[in-house]
C-alpha cells in the first residue's frame, strides 16, 4: 500500500547507497531460472517442496527463483572472457523472490513472495574473496547501524547455499523463528544451529550466562568459493591467460522483512514506530476543523507552517492531513496509527492571544506545546539527524548494542 | 546489466515523477494472482496460451500476472468501505510482468518477462473517470515529450482489456509489430486495427495521403468502466451511503520496451544514442595512456577536470574511464559503443604549449576541439538542458512532431 511503499523505497535507496559504496553495480536478473541450471549445481536434489516451478509453452521448466546464484553465475559464464583486471565484480539486484512456504505468516515477515537485495561477488582467489567479504560485511554493518534497530550478527551454518563462511544478521524479537544463543556477560551471540543449544557456557568468555533468545534473520552473507562457478563453468583469465574458476560470495538482505521486523521490534501496542530513515513521512501537519471558530486564523498559521516545513524537511516529507471535515482528534488518532516521527497540530491554542502554542507529538509518546519557531527548530533537528545518519554518522550507543560475535574475529 | 540498469532507474524516476504529478500513489501488487479472480472476470475464457500458470503446494492455481486489473480490483474490494470522499484513487506500480510469447525477440522489445508501469484508477462516475483519463493522458504526453523521441498517439481497440475508450502511444520504427495509418498531409494517425487498412483517404482531412508505417506500442491507456469492479464487487459508498460500482481506468507503460525501442529509433549502426534523460552517464572522461610521454602533465589536467565535472554534472553522472593500460583510441571506441552524450579526451594536445585543447565527442557524431573552459561550458549547458526537461519545459519542436490524432479530440 502507498504508505509502506514509501518506506520500502527509502530502504531501497539506503541499500543502494551502501551497496554502491562497497563497489556494487546494480543489475536485474530474470525471475524465471531454467531448472536445468539448478540440476547442474545439484540444488534440485534436496527438499524442493518450497520451490514454485512452471513450464512454458514449449515444456521447458523454470523455477520462480528463490535465489539467483545459478542465474548470475550462468550469466557471467556466458559473457566474453573476463580478465583478472576486471575483477572483483560485485553485482546486486533488488527484486521479488519466491518461496512456497508451508506456513506463511506475520504478513511481510514470512510471505511467499518477498523483496530481497541479493549481491553476488566474483573474485580471482579465496584471499581476495575474503577481502570482498569484509568489505560487503562492513557495508551491512553500516546499513544496520543507520537503521538504529538493535541487531546481532552471528556465525551461521551455510546450509543449502554451501560455502565456507557465513554470517547472519538478526533482529531479536519474540516473533523470531530462529533460536540464538546470547551471552549477557560479554555480548557474544551465535546461532543455536552451530552451537550446542543445551549449554549455558559462553564459548567466548566462559561465563555461564549464555541463554536463548528468538531472532528474525534479516540478512545473510556467504563466502561460496567455487561451488557454483565450477559446475557452471564461470571462469576468468589469469595473468598467464589461463581460465580459472571464479571465487564467489553472496549477500542477501530481506528488504520487506527488514521493514516488517523493524516495525515489530520498535512499535508498541498503541503506536507504530519506524526507523528514522524509513518513516514514510517525517512530519504530519493537522490543521483546524472546518467550521470551528478558530478556523480562519488557524489556517493562516497552517499555511505559514506549510511553507516553512516544505523548506526545512522537503515537501515530499510532509504529509498534510487536509481532511478538514474530520475533527482534530480523529486525525490525530490516524497519525498515531501511522507513527509519524513528528505530528504538528494547529488547533485553538495556536491562535490564542497570549503565548500561542502548537501541539507537537513526537513518535514515542512525548507531547509538547511549542511556539512556531520552537516547533520548526525541532523539525530542523530531525532533518539534521537524518542527514547525519545518511552520511554514515551512526550513534556510538548503537555500536555498543551490537553483540561481539564470532564474526568480529574474522 | 549495470549500464542499462542505470538507464532503467532513470526512466523509473521520470515515470514516478509524472505519475505522482497526476495524483498517482505507488503500490506493489503480488506477481502471483489466483486464477479464481480471472475466472470471475471471464478472462480465462479466451486464448490463454500466453499465460504462465503455476500451482502452489496446496494445488491452488496462480497466474504469473501479465497485468493486474483483477489483483488490484480485488484488493480495493476487500479494503474497508471506501467513501466517495476518498476518490479518485490512482494506484500504480512498476514491476515485472510475464507473457509466454510464441516468439520473443529483439531483446527487451518483446521479452517473456518485462518491466511495466501499470496504473489503475477508481472513480465515482464515468464523468470523473474521463477527467482522470485526461489527466493521466496529459502525464503520458508530458513524459513522452521529455524523452524527446518522436511518438504517435492513436485511437486503439480495447481488445481483451475491455472498456470504452483507449489510446496507444507508438514509436515509429521498422521493427515495430503494429501497423499504423499515418497521414502525411495533416499528421493524423490511427491503428490499422480500428481503421480500414486498405484505404488511403485520411478520415481527418480527407486527403489521400494516408499510408502505413510500423509502430512499436510503448504505452496504452484504457477507460475500463465497470468491467472489473462489477464481477469483483469493488464498490464505494455514495453521498447517500449506498454502495456503487467503482468506475475504473488502466494505464500502462512498457518500461523496458520504451528503453529498447527509444535506442532502436535514435541509434545508428555506428553509435548508440540515448534519450537525454536516460543516458546512463552524462559525461565520459578518458585520460592519457599509461607510459605515454604526456602522461604526467595530462593527468594534472584530468584531475582538474574530474573535480570541475563532478561539481557541474554531479559525480554520479560522470564515468571516468581510468583503464590507463588501454590506448585512448580503444577506450574512445568503447565510449562510442555506449553512446555517452559527451566524451572528453585528455590526450597529447591537452598539454601542448600553445592553445592546449581537449577533444570532445558529442553523441551524434560531432567532434570538437575545445579549451577547458569551453568544454566545461558545454557540459554545463547539457546539465541545464536536462534540468529544463525534467522541469517539464519540453521543446516546441517535439510538440509539432506529434501527430494530431483522434485522441486529441477527446
3D structure, described in words:
Chains A, B: Its EC number is 6.1.1.15. Chains A, B: It is an enzyme of class 6 (ligase). Chains A, B: Keywords: Aminoacyl-tRNA synthetase, ATP-binding, Ligase, Nucleotide-binding, Protein biosynthesis, Transferase. Chains A, B: Residues 20-275 form the Aminoacyl-transfer RNA synthetases class-II family profile domain. Chains A, B: It comes from Drosophila guanche (Fruit fly). 2 copies of one chain form a homodimer. The first copy, chain A, is an alpha+beta fold and 410 residues long. Chain A has 2 domains: 2-148 and 155-160 and 220-266, BirA Bifunctional Protein, domain 2 (2-Layer Sandwich), CATH 3.30.930.10; 276-390, Rossmann fold. Helix content of chain A is 31%, strand content 26%. Chain A has helices at residues 2-21, 35-40, 69-78, 126-146, 229-232, 255-266, 295-313, 328-338, 372-390, 396-401; strands at 25-26, 32-34, 53-55, 61-64, 82-83, 89-98, 113-123, 152-155, 165-172, 178-183, 189-191, 210-225, 235-237, 243-245, 247-254, 283-286, 318-321, 342-345, 358-362, 367-370. In chain A, the strands form 4 sheets. In chain A, strands 1, 6, 7, 8, 9, 10, 11, 12 and 15 form a 9-stranded mixed beta sheet that branches. In chain A, strands 17-16-18-19-20 form a 5-stranded mixed beta sheet, with helices on both faces. In chain A, helix 7 packs parallel to helix 9 (372-390). The longest helix of chain A has 21 residues, at 126-146. Chains A and B meet through helix 1, strand 1 and strand 6 of A and helix 1, strand 1 and strand 6 of B.
Amino acid at each position: 500500500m502507498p504508505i509502506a511503499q514509501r518506506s520500502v523505497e527509502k530502504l531501497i535507496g539506503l541499500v543502494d547507497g551502501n551497496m554502491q559504496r562497497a563497489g556494487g553495480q546494480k543489475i536485474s536478473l530474470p525471475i524465471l531460472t531454467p531448472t536445468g541450471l539448478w540440476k547442474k549445481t545439484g540444488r534440485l536434489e534436496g527438499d524442493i517442496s518450497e520451490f514454485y516451478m512452471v513450464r512454458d509453452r514449449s515444456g521447458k521448466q523454470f523455477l520462480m527463483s528463490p535465489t539467483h546464484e545459478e542465474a548470475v553465475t550462468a550469466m557471467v559464464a556466458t559473457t566474453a572472457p573476463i580478465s583478472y583486471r576486471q575483477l572483483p565484480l560485485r553485482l546486486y539486484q533488488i527484486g521479488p523472490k519466491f518461496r512456497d512456504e508451508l506456513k506463511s505468516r506475520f504478513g511481510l515477515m514470512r510471505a511467499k513472495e518477498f523483496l530481497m537485495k541479493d549481491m553476488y561477488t566474483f573474485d580471482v582467489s579465496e584471499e581476495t574473496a575474503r577481502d570482498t567479504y569484509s568489505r560487503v560485511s562492513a557495508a551491512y554493518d553500516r546499513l544496520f547501524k543507520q537503521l538504529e534497530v538493535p541487531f546481532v550478527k552471528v556465525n551461521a551454518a551455510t546450509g543449502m547455499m554451501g560455502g565456507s563462511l557465513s554470517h547472519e544478521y538478526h533482529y531479536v524479537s519474540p516473533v523470531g523463528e530462529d533460536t540464538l544463543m546470547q551471552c549477557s556477560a560479554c555480548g557474544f551471540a551465535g546461532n543455536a544451529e552451530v552451537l550446542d543449544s543445551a549449554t549455558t557456557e559462553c564459548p567466548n568468555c566462559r561465563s555461564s550466562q549464555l541463554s536463548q533468545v528468538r531472532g528474525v534473520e534479516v540478512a545473510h552473507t556467504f563466502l561460496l568459493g567455487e561451488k557454483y562457478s565450477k559446475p557452471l563453468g564461470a571462469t576468468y583469465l589469469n595473468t598467464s591467460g589461463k581460465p580459472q574458476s571464479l571465487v564467489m560470495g553472496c549477500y542477501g538482505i530481506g528488504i520487506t522483512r527488514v521493514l516488517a521486523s523493524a516495525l515489530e521490534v520498535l512499535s508498541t501496542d498503541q503506536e507504530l514506530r519506524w526507523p528514522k530513515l524509513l518513516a514514510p513521512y517525517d512530519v504530519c501537519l493537522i490543521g483546524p476543523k472546518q467550521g470551528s471558530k478558530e478556523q480562519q486564523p488557524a489556517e493562516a498559521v497552517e499555511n505559514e507552517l506549510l511553507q516553512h516545513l516544505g523548506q526545512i524537511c522537503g515537501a515530499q516529507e510532509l504529509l498534510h492531513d487536509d481532511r478538514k471535515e474530520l475533527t482534530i482528534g480523529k486525525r490525530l488518532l490516524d497519525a498515531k496509527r501511522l507513527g509519524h516521527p513528528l505530528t504538528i497540530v494547529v488547533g485553538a491554542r495556536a491562535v490564542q492571544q497570549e503565548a500561542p502554542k502548537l501541539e507537537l507529538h513526537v513518535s514515542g509518546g512525548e507531547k509538547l506545546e511549542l511556539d512556531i519557531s520552537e516547533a520548526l527548530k525541532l523539525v530542523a533537528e530531525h532533518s539534521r539527524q537524518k542527514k547525519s545518519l545518511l552520511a554514515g554518522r551512526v550513534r556510538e550507543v548503537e555500536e555498543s548494542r551490537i553483540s561481539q560475535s564470532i564474526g568480529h574475529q574474522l
